[in-house]
Amino acid sequence: MIVINKNTTNNFVATLYELSQLSNPNYLFEFESDQSKTKYYTIITDISTNKPRYNEFNFVEGSDDPTNGSLDLGSPGFYNYKVYEQASSSNLNPSGLNEVEQGKMKLIDSTYEPSFTQHTVSPTTNVVYNPAQ
To answer: pTM score, two decimals?
Structure first.
């Protein structure tokens, strides 16, 4: 699972090389919100120094520049992600592209504090009626 912090620069690692067919691909990431079903697309540059072993990515969450590895994904929560390889460095449409990985991503907002409503319950007095007395 990839974990992304909201409004920050995030580094994460994936293993895309083994299913890639292109010699020097650009990777298109698709993030789909579990809650809203909205899909977001971005191209994130592979900054790994050992691509056959792992692929490292530097992703900026909180600003929209999808062809340069940054997106504002909106609400914190869980997302499905898919990664596609392509020759283009600007195409944001996955149609016809080779999918090289899929999985789950969790978007965390450390500044978010959920509010809870606490209700107080007044004690009740139970009166038992016994007709035999």
So the answer is: 0.81
